[in-house]
Design brief:
Layout: H1 3-16, E1 19-20, E2 32-37, E3 40-46, E4 57-59, E5 63-69, E6 71-74, E7 92-96, E8 102-114, H2 117-129, E9 138-154, E10 159-164, E11 184-189, E12 192-211, E13 220-223, H3 242-245
Antiparallel strand pairs: 1-12, 2-3, 2-9, 4-8, 5-8, 6-7, 7-10, 8-9, 9-12, 10-11, 12-13
């Protein structure tokens, strides 16, 4: 996994507390079982396939989220090549100033998580003790679902992308994640990974794993993203994001 993707992962995890789905439009579902591989989650099974039910879920309130790093927008006319500008056709230029600079805009994003994590943890440990669980496996126990989202990640240290929309939309108020805007890329310099106003993305997730005791004690479950743990699951803690970055 190259350094631009690492920077994107670090920024999202540090500020939002979740892992960023990579590639951004990849499919990740609640209850997926898999491994971390080159900075992304690769599914190998599911809790359902392993006989662990998780019918009850908790959902958060939908909210809009805008977050960016090392990305400059401007409505000023360009004085030279590489300067952000608004174009006559209603476009908006965005300049990225380092590798891993990104734009992340989501509409109606809500968190969905497995409600009874204590039962899930007990079932995971039980299957592990039966020899049917591989120690490197992880379980997606929470995802964020966006009604629509635009995500642009720069892979170059200096790059620019020009976005255009339907006529009549002021560039300074351009809603990048709204599919009704008809957003397109009219020109760009440098390399990007992007999705534009895509619907029903799962751009963020968290997962848990069974941690094997080295000598004594019982196997338990720890998150690969840390929020307050539910009562009874005393083993929940926040591991380093290096679990993802060094995979």
């Amino acid at each position: 996994m190259g350094s631009p993707v690492k920077l994107y992962h670090k920024q999202m995890h540090t500020n939002l507390g979740y892992f960023a789905t990579w590639l951004p439009a990849s499919i990740i579902e609640l209850g997926d079982v898999g491994i971390l591989e080159s900075g992304r989650f690769r599914k190998v099974a599911s809790l359902k396939e392993l006989g662990i039910p998780h019918s009850d879920v908790r959902e958060g309130t939908p909210e809009d989220l805008n977050y960016s790093a090392s990305a400059k927008r401007s409505t000023k006319a360009a004085a030279s090549v590489g300067v952000p500008s608004v174009h006559a056709d209603g476009g908006l230029s965005i300049q990225f100033t380092q590798e891993g600079g990104f734009i992340f805009e989501a509409l109606g994003m809500r968190s969905v998580e497995i409600a009874d994590r204590l039962s899930m943890a007990n079932a995971m440990v039980r299957i592990y003790e039966q020899g049917r669980w591989q120690i490197e496996w992880l379980v997606v126990e929470a995802i964020c679902i966006a009604h629509s989202a635009t995500i642009i990640v720069s892979e170059d240290s200096a790059s620019e992308v020009v976005l255009t929309a339907r006529a009549g939309i002021p560039a300074e108020a351009l809603p990048l994640a709204d599919p009704k805007v008809g957003l397109t890329i009219s020109s760009s310099t440098g390399k990007f990974v992007h999705v534009l106003a895509a619907s029903d993305l799962h751009p963020l997730y968290s997962c848990v794993r069974v941690r094997d005791p080295l000598f004594f004690g019982q196997p338990n479950v720890v998150p690969v993203r840390g929020l307050a743990s539910p009562s009874g699951v005393n083993a929940l803690a926040r591991p380093a994001i290096d679990d993802l970055l060094d995979s």
